[in-house]
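May I ask for a sample protein chain and its fold as tokens?
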Amino acid sequence: MSPEMHGSTTSWSVYTVVALVVFAFIYLRGRYRLSKVRQSDANVWRASAFLSGELLLSAVVASPLAGLDHRWLTAHMVQHLVLMTLAAPLILLGEPAIMFLNSLPEHFDVATLSRFQRSAPIHRIWLMLTNPAFCWLAGTVCVIVWHVPSAFDLCLQSKVWHDFEQASFFAAGLLFWRPVVQPRPSIARWHRWFVPLYLFLATIPCDALSAFLTFCGRVVYPTYVFSPQLFNNSALRDQEVAGTMMWVWVTFAYLIPAVVITMQILSPADTPRQKLARAAWPRPAVRSQNGGEAEGL
């Protein structure tokens, strides 16, 4: 990476970390307000998941790993995998929408926001973005397109495209994992039995790509041929390690949640008491315009 690009990347990293700190403050403020109304909704583990996701994001853009992706394909692959399979689902598990709504100022007109969400254009866009088929395609297409050699090398040579690549991996991860995590407030579009199949099908294109990188026998991305390699490894060896790591990582990251969800589906049915408790589960409160508490959107 050129010194100019390294300096601009460092500057972008600082701005990203500052933004993550601001989002963490907003999230914790909403969680604090929610805990005063309904302690049961302000789960500690959800806050821990959200903050862990933000920590992983900062590690990708502001740690020494961020400067290694232009030298080693393995480091670049770790960035992609962390963004899509760790940071994105952890942030969704934190249910940020609920916490952000509860962090709004007391004088904020929640009703206006609700009407805006229900407007026809916004509603159509929301239906498309939350469609599981679209979410699956977003994650799959993002992985395939950015590993095309011409697109990959473009990101290695341009800071703007490199930043856009990282942002798209994270955004695609949020879309891909949303039907799996189903963070509140959300409504399941398909039956829960669909999720294991959804995750299994997602492993196929990733396995094909990782197998190609591992066994093709040639360097796919020429930029790494001229980069200094760790432990005097060759660029081809680096590519084989990256492909193998992607193969194993994606298999565990997708199939473990699929197994867990399958076990939950096959578990004994809820008792009448559990069903009654779930039916009576309240929606989280947000501040109304007059300073009182109102039901969440």
About this structure: The beta strands are 285-287, 293-295.
